[in-house]
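Researcher: Quick sanity check before group meeting.
Model: Go ahead. Protein one:
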Amino acid sequence: MAVGRGGTGRSGRPRVTMPERRRISSGGPWEATASYSRAIVVGDDCWVAGTTDAGPDGRSLHPDDMAGQARAVFDIIERALLEAGFAFADIVRLRMLVTDMTRKDELMAVQSERFRDIRPAATLVEVSALIDPSLLVEIEVDARRG
């Protein structure tokens, strides 16, 4: 938040201007119907929504392949970050949801590939289901420039 130069508001206090809010879309199958954006940028912060490897039909492009889904998801997230003006290395928070914790090693191997030098704060949680039964993993990230 910044104090604007345009005088004061009705309260007599200086006007406060908010940083611009930008929406990033990947054209994913649920963005329009569920009214959300792949990512939101405000100032030096970017929040990337829960991301899966769902194709146009809403089903996984890598059925029963947790590592393949994770790689595809990280690629989608990286494209959204780049479009937003961020780098993958700007990720500070990682949240991963899996439908089968017994397969966590498959996901964590991919996580290690992509985050070896970044090492963001991270959470891994098992959930009973994702939006389509073919999806095994959903990942969201928060990024900060600087």
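Researcher: Fine. The other one?
Model: Protein two, sequence then structure:
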Amino acid sequence: MKKSSILVTALGVALLPAAAEAYVGPGLGAGAIAAVIGVLGSIFLALFAVIYYPVKRMIKKRKKAAGQPAADAGVTAEE
């Protein structure tokens, strides 16, 4: 046999799934679910913050501009 065919055969046997005799208890399962929810939640919050704060600033500027009717809004008649 050639070396390459032996290597391919050995690699194929090594990569075949074997029976896994493992038990995932409720603690590990709940921890894995909590970790996935935490990662997804942090990604969602990061995207929300990136979108929310510029929109909030824009709304604040519009409200401020609507509250000042004239360009000389700070000047009173007494001055």
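Researcher: One line on it for the slide.
Model: The radius of gyration is 32 Å.
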